[in-house]
Specification:
Shape: globular
Strand content: under 5%
Number of strands: 0
Mean pLDDT: 93
Order of helices and strands: HHHH
Radius of gyration: 13 Å
Low-confidence stretches: none
Number of domains: 1
Number of helices: 4
Length: about 70
Amino acid sequence: MDTGVLMTVKDKINERMDKLQAWMESNYHLEHPEEVEEHIQSVSKFWSALSEEDRDYIQGARFAIESKMEWNV
């Protein structure tokens, strides 16, 4: 098995948070709220491993989705 191909939990979290940030900053959540929420769930399953900053970001993103607000952070 090639261990260079295996992603760590931290790598998975970083990759998914980067995608979430890109989507939020482009206001993708306004047109595709279900897709963004599904993506948030794929990150949230690592909740215990997330930093406080990532948890706050996810909560803010969920609020923006629910409120149908533009993301201006």
